[in-house]
Design a protein that fits this description.
Order of helices and strands: EHEHHHHEHEEEHEEEHEEEEEHEHEEHEE
Number of helices: 11
CATH class of the largest domain: Alpha Beta
Number of strands: 19
Radius of gyration: 21 Å
Number of domains: 2
Shape: globular
CATH topology of the largest domain: L-arginine/glycine Amidinotransferase, Chain A
Helix content: 25-40%
Distance between the termini: 19 Å
Structural class: alpha/beta
CATH architecture of the largest domain: 5-stranded Propeller
């Protein structure tokens, strides 16, 4: 049976995409717990939604059909009558049984409609949501200042990470941080239960012991995948996925493993480079001297790993069957502009067609340079969305590209 998804390129004409409109989870962020939630600041929800709506409108103006994550998960659960099982899996994921509130949280969620339940899971469950509880356990007598029974999921609007598409298959990510692990549960139910998407071949399961996230995976072509070895993606996971992907069924013959510095500002490969045309990439110039590149192929059915000795752009050109590729430097020749705009996701563009991208308006230096190289740039506002440390590519998961 044909797969309901198709992603064999980073720049092919985008036809369908999956988003999550930011919700109350952003208003459950607290200054003293920001690092726990992988945030540096607290976005203002009203303006974040306005910016996200403009992102959606821009996509639609480019001919892209937009789907929302929670809507599809709701359809998947309602279609199969699996609400109770989903709640049980959700509770098991966060270990509530050890805190003596498992039944209270379960009843709170089960009494809701599926749509309400998913919103509650996303925004988190405050202790005050369950009302005053009878003191039965020692923990009930101890003044615990932490105000949540269930943490919010503020990273949910970065739909690129918890699962990612390769060809006609989906990989359910193994997230590096526990706070984001629940996001992949949404993906598991979507791709195993939705009436349209349940036939999608699953190429990687969320139970894999080594972390890998979608922001580190670039589908360069039908045959070549690039995967970043980063703060969030473990080299063991890259090797295991390459071994699984390189086969006749997928048509993939090579994985380029790109080792980047393991620091917060470079958390994923797509925070330092994205593809903007068939022969052009935007890249943060500071990483070029530090990159280590490895080519993973199959020989006699066994995975072979070789360090690449050629220049990065030459390896990319050869992989893409181009005479040459152009690396467009974020911030141009200014170290100050490059650092500032990379921090604000100047390299994290989303291609809607070859040579046509969506980018944050605040990265005006990089956007001007992209235009100088013939790239059409659709700018969207980002004063609030950028506080989560992710750009247009991070905020989108293509479902179908031409």
């Amino acid at each position: 049976m044909d797969s309901p998804i198709q992603v064999q390129s980073e720049v092919g004409k985008l036809r369908r995409v999956l988003l999550h409109r930011p919700g109350q989870e952003l208003e459950n962020l607290m200054p003293q717990y920001l690092s726990r939630q992988l945030f540096e600041d607290i976005p203002y929800l009203t303006h974040a939604r306005e910016e996200h709506d403009e992102f959606t409108a821009t996509l639609r103006s480019c001919g892209v059909e937009v789907f929302y994550l929670l809507d599809l998960v709701e359809e998947a659960i309602s279609n199969t009558g699996t609400q109770e099982q989903f709640v049980d899996d959700f509770i098991a994921e966060i270990g509530l049984s050890a805190r003596g509130v498992e039944n209270a949280v379960r009843n709170y969620l089960i009494d809701m409609s599926v749509a309400e339940m998913l919103c509650a899971m996303s925004r988190g469950i405050r202790k005050s949501d369950l009302g005053r509880r009878e003191q039965k356990h020692l923990v009930d007598y101890i003044d615990d200042a932490y105000p949540f029974f269930v943490d919010p999921m503020p990273n949910l609007y970065f739909t690129r990470d918890p699962f990612f598409m390769v060809g006609g298959g989906v990989c359910i990510s193994s997230m590096a941080n526990p706070v984001r692990a629940r996001e992949t549960l949404f993906g598991q139910y979507l791709f195993k239960n939705h009436p349209v998407y349940r036939n999608t071949p699953i190429l990687h399961e969320r139970s894999d012991p080594f972390s890998i996230e979608g922001g580190d995976v670039l589908v360069l072509s039908k045959e070549i995948i690039a995967i970043g070895i980063s703060q969030r993606t473990d080299p063991h996971a890259v090797e295991a996925l390459a071994d699984r992907l390189i086969c006749e069924e997928t048509g993939i013959r090579r994985v380029l493993a790109i080792d980047i510095p393991k620091i917060r500002s470079y958390m994923h490969l797509d925070t330092v480079m994205t593809m903007v045309d068939v022969d052009k990439f935007t890249i943060h110039p500071s990483i070029l001297p530090t990159l280590k590149l490895f080519s993973l192929t199959k020989r006699n059915g066994k995975l072979a790993i070789e360090p690449e000795k050629h220049k990065f752009e030459n390896v990319l050109a050869e992989a893409l069957h181009q005479e040459k590729v152009t690396l467009i430097h974020c911030g141009g020749g200014s170290a100050i502009d490059a650092a500032r705009e990379q921090w604000n996701d100047g390299t994290n563009t989303l291609a809607v067609a070859p040579g046509e991208v969506i980018a944050f308006s605040r990265n005006y230096v990089t956007n001007r340079i992209l235009r100088d190289h013939g790239i059409t740039v659709h700018e969207i506002p980002s004063a609030e969305l950028s506080r989560g440390r992710g750009g247009p590519r991070c905020m989108s998961m293509p479902l179908w590209r031409e």
